[in-house]
Specification:
Elements: E1 3-7, E2 11-13, E3 16-18, E4 33-38, E5 46-51, E6 56-62, E7 65-70, E8 75-80, E9 85-89, E10 94-98, E11 105-110, E12 119-120, H1 123-130
Antiparallel strand pairs: 1-9, 2-3, 4-11, 5-10, 5-12, 6-9, 6-11, 7-8, 7-10
The structure holds thymidine-5'-diphosphate.
Residues 33, 35, 37, 46-47, 49, 114 line the site of thymidine-5'-diphosphate (TYD).
Amino acid sequence: MGYKSIDFETLGDDRGSLIALEENYNAPFEIKRVYYIFDTKENVTRGFHAHIDLKQLAIVVKGSCTFSLDDGYKREEIILDNPNKGLFIEGLIWREMKEFSPDCVLLVLASEHYDESDYIRDYDDFLMEVHK
Ligand code: TYD
């Protein structure tokens, strides 16, 4: 599957914790865009798309949420509930994000600028793309 979990080194002292994300180091691509999702309403599921050519690194900096990832053959669920863990996604992966805690802040680093033409928003189109 085109995803992996990345454990970040936490730099901590008696004042608290700090994590640094660096391009082509613990964030394994050139970072062109950063966005964050917050104040997600209860029982909302977002996403429902795949990307043709995008690398992303998702970090829940506060709270928790669940990623459902589908490569066209199988579906797996990944719970993000710790800011020291990132979820790196590349290639054709259908993604849905759900079970957001009320305090969840989901930060996403992306390898490209926003481009709607890179999205596959129809699941049957996604399956056709995977199997072609
Ligand atoms: P959407 O793709 O529906 O979010 P999700 O996949 O998390 O459910 O995005 C919501 C809106 O924000 C949509 O109108 C597209 C816009 N958008 C941008 O303008 N730039 C971005 O980087 C992203 C991720 C979304």
